[in-house]
Amino acid sequence: MEKTITNDVLQRNDASKDLLTISDLTIAYHSKKDRLLALDHTTLNIEKNSLIAVVGESGCGKSTLALAIIGLLAMPPAKVETGAINYKSVNLVDLKENQRRQYRGTEIAMIFQEPLTSLNPVYKVGDQIAEAIVVREHRKGGREIDPDIQVMQKAYKVNTPEIPSRLPRIRRGATARILRNEVLDALKRVRIADPEQVIDRYPFELSGGMRQRVMIAMALSQKPALLIADEPTTALDVTTQAQVLKLMKILMDEVNTSILLITHDLAVASQVADRVIVMYAGDIVEDAGVYDMFSEPLHPYSKGLLSCIPSGSKDKTRLKPIPGTVPNLTVEQVGCKYASRCPNVMNICSTKKPRLIEAKPKHKVACFLYGE
Amino acid sequence: MSFILRRLFLAIFVLIGVITITFILSHSLGGNPIVAWLGKSASLHPELAKAYAIKYHLNSPLWVQYYYYISGLLQGNLGFSPSRGFVPVTTVVAQTLPYTLQIAFFAIVISIILGVLLGVVASRYHHSPADKSIRAFYLAGISSPSFFIALVLLIIFTFEFHVLPSGGAADPTITSPHPITYLPILDSLLEGNLAYFSSAMQHVILPSMALALGTFGVVVRVLRSSMLDVMRANYVRTARAKGLKERTVFFKHGLRNAMISVVTLSSLIVTWLITGTIFVENIFSYPGMGQYVFTALIAQDYPGILATTIIFAIIIILSNLTADILYVIVDPQIRLG
Amino acid sequence: MLSGEAAEENLTETNPNSSVSVDRVRNAFASIRSNKGALIGATIVAIFAVTSIVVFLAGVAHIQITPYNPLKQDVGPPLAAPSLAHIMGTDQLGRDVFSRIVTATPNDFSVSLVVIAFALIVGAIIGTYAAFNGGLLDEALMRLTDVFFAIPALVLAMAIGIALGPGISNMTIALMIIWWPPYARLARGEALKIAHQNYIEAARLAGSGRSRIIVGHALPNITLTLIVYASLDVGTVILVYAGLSYLGLAVRPPLPDWGEMVSSYQDFMLSSPWLPFFPGLVIALGVIGFSLLGDGLRDALQSS
Question: Closest chain B residue to A105 measured between Cα atoms?
């Protein structure tokens, strides 16, 4: 029996400023021999209408975090050991798959790194966006029904289509027109110049930047409250990168969606984020507003990251890479995980693990330099 | 579109190549090329032999003979078949081809349905006991010679359980349908001749199964591996992220893409089917081209064998073209890219 | 579907600057040993191989190793069901079926190996030369393989067979003629891939002539791929040869051959269904053995 989430449950606790709260989340991957600790007692908030950037190198756990929020982690190898993900006063971790799925797309949406392979090559992009819209419409109606791409394909090309009785909220005969217009609107919203052309194109016929816009259009057409973007611009060239980022920032205000931006690139974060969270080896090491983070980073790792960014200034000093390597996450770590590479390491760092504390107003850091 | 045109040119070229090979073979049959047209007993028909020698310039240089060979073929002359009472080979082909097409049709349908079904199950539950037993099953199928499978089916269903008839295309006491499409089973359906239809279906099911059991294995293997790849693809992850039901993701996004690789298989399947009909039709006494080849071989009916080689090649070339067309329909990247 | 984060950095990448590594072969053996299917396949193939060699040697030395003389009639009551005395029963002439099957083992086994070996070697050489020389030879090869693909192997072998006349050697020759094109095509494809890799460039710069490059560097790698394909292909040759044998083109009675045995025992399947069953089963087992071994080899070499 499928339980659907009715509107009033979702509207409860709308008053709070936080959209999503992650408390003490620990996720590990279990294989036959090892346990790999991907997220270690992670805690963070996402407010409404803000863009949070999660920054860190490969393997720091940011993708695991993203997949955990949307619920796409393969749960046999992955396991939630502690903690909760609270979204609109529901703990997503406790939900069964069927209920969890209700949140995907229409509440929490996600776009991925590789726009070419992330779109189905055999369907036109318009049809794929339409599929997303139909999911939204059916959930609104309170009945969850299988959206049929082919029905929709024919539907919005014919004037009086055969509409199955499974669409309670949309009037028959209007569906074709409404759907096609909605798809066109979605494309226009992402500033695609000729949506009438693009709607009938296949993914491989579009450029990388266009494809990523299509992905954004598809995700936003479901009107999610939270959009997770996992390295959305990594596969794009620098100019397109800037365009897409700017677009996402604009859309955030137009559509009333928060964005969780996952990236390894601090420069990307600096361009659009309201807040920046730095992760290292499964831990959150610093959590601050974007200006504070870039003007006065507190954690030694954050400082190290910032000094890695090549700047356009005339200062011809060498780039300073951070010495050492990330710790092996399958081995139990005692104390601060960054201790072995930290230029400010102290004795206490190898014995106790630093907690995330609010060293300055709205600026959290996990480092013994700033207290316990 | 140009893709199809290129394929068409290739097909024609290949056909010419095949004809060249049969031409070469017809001259290797021990001396007298007449044997290729009239069989070993050519000497019994001196008039016909002389007429042929003149018409096909069998005493002229090889190039000339080649030209007349091809023009003869284009006119539909494939020689006379001694194993069938010296009627033209084309007549025999016209009589037997429809039956082979019937078996081939059902064999392909069964093979694909069975293959896709089992392939989907195997990929969904991969590495489970179900997956392993499916693998054992299809391995036995593709490893067994078609005559072995046919015999086993015959013994089980006809002799032990007396379920299905053992010979012929249909009960001879039932009236045959009028030739509309020249495919008896289809004609009987169109005519409403249900007695013939049911009898013919009973007769066609075992030979088709025998062939299908030999070929479904490749479909399972390819589909299973294709499904495993596809379900790991990024676009499947996107489909899930959109909130679609797993069933929708599996079929609309997964299977739809995996089926593309099955299209490429069809030429392999057709080749195996043709080879198989030679044995299976004989065992089930089904009056198709396979049985003709079998009897022709025993009777040293060279015209029959050479002609059927060309016909088989034509069938395979046509099925390859069809597969190419299907490929264009099913994969937009080929169509437009 | 793990997130990309969880996978550790792969520190050992394939080095495009090295040619065949011995490690690949070593890893392959380890992989096969752990693969149950491949072990079963290897066992079956080993049994067939040993049987073939023993039967052949015994034949040369005129020693009988089978329980009964395979050609001798009336060593038991005709059409007897399988029993302790005759494990697979007797045929219509009172010959012991088991002895006949064992004696026939070298036929299928040797024919398939000879054909495959020939196809492999000829195909590798022709394909590689075609790839490196390009031009007319390359085009001709591609078209030739296209033509051969249009005719089923059995039918073509049959047609060539009737031109040559029946007999095991003639059938082997017919099969050799038609079997090499796919290998040449495969070799050509692999050669084209390898031609651009670094160690070929290095050899060329060092002044090696074209032939030396081909033989010394390209061929060893191509051979590996071809061997994997061949191991799965042996089963197909066995099936085609068994078909030819069934059609009476291979062996002349009274010599035993599996396909021919199924054909002649077919008439007795009503009364003695085991008769055509056993030789057919043995053919299937042989093919299964090679298929499993081939699969194992492919998995082993792909994961290394």
Answer: B242
Indicate which of B147, B149, B153, B278 best probes the interface with C, i.e. most C CBs within 10 Å of its own CB: B147
Residues in chain B, overall count: 337
CA–CA dist A230, A219 (Å, integer): 13
pLDDT at A156 over 60: no
The pLDDT assigned to C262 comes to: 92
Is C242's Cβ below 8 Å from some Cβ in B? yes
Q: How far apart are CA B19 and CA C196, in angstroms?
A: 38
Three-state secondary-structure class, residue A94: helix
Please judge whether C3 and A59 are an interchain contact, meaning their C-beta atoms are less than 8 angstroms apart. Answer: no
* Residue in the structure block whose two tokens are 């990236």: A263
Kindly identify which residue of chain A lies nearest to residue C5, measuring between CA atoms: A59
Highest-pLDDT range among B83-87, C26-30, C48-52: C48-52
Option in C144, C154, C283 nearest B275 (CB): C154
Sign of CA dihedral C132, C133, C139, C143: negative
Q: How much is the pTM?
A: 0.82
The torsion defined by the Cα of B106, B108, B109 and B113, in degrees rounded to 10, comes to: 140
> Which chain C residues have a beta carbon less than 8 Å from that of B159?
269-270, 273
The DSSP secondary structure of B165-215, one letter per residue, reads --SSSS-TTSPPPP-SSS-HHHHHHHHT-HHHHHHHHHHHHHHHHHHHHHH
Q: What is the mean pLDDT of residues C139-147?
A: 85
Q: Which long-range contacts (CB under 8 A, 24 or more apart) does C48-56 make?
A: C48/C105, C48/C109, C48/C286, C48/C289, C49/C109, C51/C102, C51/C105, C51/C106, C52/C105, C52/C106, C52/C109, C52/C110, C53/C106, C55/C102, C55/C103, C55/C105, C55/C106, C56/C106, C56/C110
Please give the average per-residue pLDDT across B171-191, as a whole number: 77
The nearest CA of chain C is from the CA of B177 a distance in Å of 32
| Residues 6+ positions from C222 with CB-CB distance below 8 Å | C124, C127, C128, C187, C190, C191, C194
C-alpha span between B310 and C104 (Å, rounded):
33
pLDDT band at A313 (very low <50, low <70, confident <90, very high): low
What gap in Å lies between CA B280 and CA B209, rounded to an integer?
10
At residue A21's C-alpha, the angle toward residues A18 and A26, to 5°, is 170
Q: How far apart are the first and last CA of chain B?
A: 11
Q: What is the pLDDT of residue C211?
A: 60
Which residues are CB-contacts of A81 (< 8 A; sequence separation ≥ 6)?
Answer: A26, A27, A28
Of A37, A276, A277, B10, residue with least CA distance to C144: B10
Q: Show the tokens assigned to C210.
A: 């074209």
Range from A79-88, A138-147, A151-160 carrying the lowest mean pLDDT: A151-160
Query: Is the model's pLDDT at B207 over the cut of 60?
Result: yes
Instruction: Give the angle subtended at the CA of B74 by the CAs of B71 and B80, to the nearest 5°.
Output: 90
CA-CA distance, C54 to C103, in Å (whole number)?
10
Neighbours of C200 (CB within 10 A): 19
Find which of A63, A70, A118, A283 to mutate to test the C interface (most C CBs within 10 Å of its CB).
A63
* Beta-carbon separation of C6 and A36 below 8 A: yes
What value does the CA radius of gyration of chain C take, rounded to a whole number of Å? Answer: 23
pLDDT tens profile B16-45: 888 888 888 877 765 566 666 666 666 666
Under DSSP, the state recorded for C5 is: G
Q: Is the pLDDT of residue C253 over 60?
A: yes
Strands A51-55 and A78-87: unpaired
A15, two tokens: 């008053």
Which of A226, A255, A209 minimizes the C-alpha distance to A116?
Answer: A209
Considering all CA atoms of chain C, what is the largest pairwise distance in Å, rounded to the nearest integer? 75
- Other C-beta atoms within 10 Å of B234: how many? 17
Structure tokens at B72: 């003869």
Q: Strand A275-280 relative to strand A51-55: parallel, antiparallel, unpaired?
A: parallel
